[in-house]
Amino acid sequence: MSAPDKINEFYVGYLPKAPKYIGRFTIKTTLALLLLTALVAAAFVRGQNSFYPSVFEFLQPRSFTGVISMQPVPILLAMRPGKSGEAAHLSRYYLVAEGKHGAQEALQDWEGKPVTLHGKLIYRDNQTMLELVSGSLKPWAAPQAHAFMPADSMPEFALGTFTLEGEIVDSKCYLGVMNPGNLKTHRACAVRCLSGGIPPIFVVRDQNGNAIHLLLVSPDGRTVNNEVLHMVAEPLVISGQVFQQGDLLLLKADPKTYRPR
Where are the beta strands (DSSP E) in the chain? Predict the structure, then answer.
């Protein structure tokens, strides 16, 4: 078809078939737009950050046994394979209640006592937590219960004074209940969780980008939930003493000294 013929083609929508040139042009343009849309969508998906591999076993409560420690936050000390009675062979599970609530009230009379309970496992990296199933907590009277060290005798080692950069998160959502469970998109939820007693964690990145998790407490070991609410999900610098208690790291610092990065 000559150029003048192409220019003179005319199509009205009620006609059963478009002229040859207009029809070919429409098909080619449509296919090109579909291909471009697919390529843009693929590039957009590829450019998104993937979700971090964290887990919340919401519908899979398990049975656990161990000793309750309430300091500085509720923790279940559970025996790992190894020599009985040695702190290095104890796993530590943060304990929280269902919803946006800590487990302090439910466990206040269980300090240092061997227990059996049902919990929903939450974990990320080397951090583990249990959401306590309501009504499942019972005394543990098995013969092996005596093998545990008393909760108040867990050794705490000072690692030194450090100045660290990172972000405050609520441990429950960050470890697996929500994904992502950090940054400003999660701030409102994190504030509610910390207000309800969920332990605050300071997440620091090492030079290789690996996360280091430190439980935030005051210099005398108290919880600091209400004092850090306005600083959640903000890049911060915190200077304080770091302590190790088994596989748990604690950062002891006065929240008044926290500063923006």
Answer: 55-56, 62-69, 75-79, 90-96, 114-124, 127-132, 138-139, 157-170, 200-205, 211-217, 236-245, 248-252, 259-260
- The top-level CATH class assigned to 157-260 is mainly beta
Q: Report d(CA 95, CA 91) in Å as an integer.
A: 12
Distance CA 237, CA 168 (A): 10
User: Residue 67 is encoded by which pair of tokens?
Assistant: 């000793």
Q: CATH for 55-153?
A: 2.40.50
pLDDT in the model for residue 3: 52
Q: What average pLDDT does range 31-38 have in this prediction? A: 91
- 92 forms beta bridges with 77
Q: Residue 159: what residue type? A: L
Can you read off the two tokens belonging to residue 130?
């249990």
Q: Among 225, 224, 219, 259, which Cα is nearest to 240's?
A: 219
182 band by pLDDT with thresholds 50, 70 and 90: confident
Q: Where do the CATH 2.40.50 domains begin and end in the chain?
A: 55-153, 157-260
Whole-number pLDDT of residue 150: 57
Question: What is the model's pTM?
Answer: 0.78
